Amino acid sequence: MFVAGQVGWDAQGRFHSSRLADQVKQALQNILAVLAEAQARPEHIVRMTWYVTSRDEYLAEQEDIGTAYRAVLGRHFPVMTVVQVVALMESQAKVEIEATAVIPDQP
């Protein structure tokens, strides 16, 4: 299952924070909501690509990002690439995450 880029807004398209770590947490929650529609769980994620608008902000908030990550995905760590970009299509977005999940056949 391929989950297109998710940003840090809620289901109504509202950003509740301008902090990168908070937007990461919401984007990851959004990915899990999409996966849940296919009865998939965090452990089915095999790859993620993160697009961040500031490498410096990512490095400065790394501890909080790690805390947010573990709060949502637990101790599951698929391969991941982080890329700095000039901007994202949503002007308030500081991160956009895409994910690939492999869902086993279900009886």
Would you kindly provide a brief summary of this structure?
The chain is α+β, with helices and mostly antiparallel strands. Helix content is about 35%, strand content about 25%.
Describe this structure in words.
It is a single chain. Helix 1 packs parallel to helix 3. The chain has helices spanning 20-36, 55-60, 62-73, and strands at residues 2-7, 45-52, 79-84, 95-101. With 107 residues, the protein is an alpha+beta fold. The longest helix has 17 residues, at 20-36. The two termini are 18 Å apart. It contains three helices and four strands, in the order E-H-E-H-H-E-E.
Describe the SSE topology.
Blueprint: E1 2-7, H1 20-36, E2 45-52, H2 55-60, H3 62-73, E3 79-84, E4 95-101
Strand order of the largest sheet: 1-4-2-3
**Termini, distance in Å?**
18 Å
Mean pLDDT: 96
Cα Rg: 13 Å
Descriptive key words:
4-stranded mixed beta sheet, single chain, 107 residues, alpha+beta
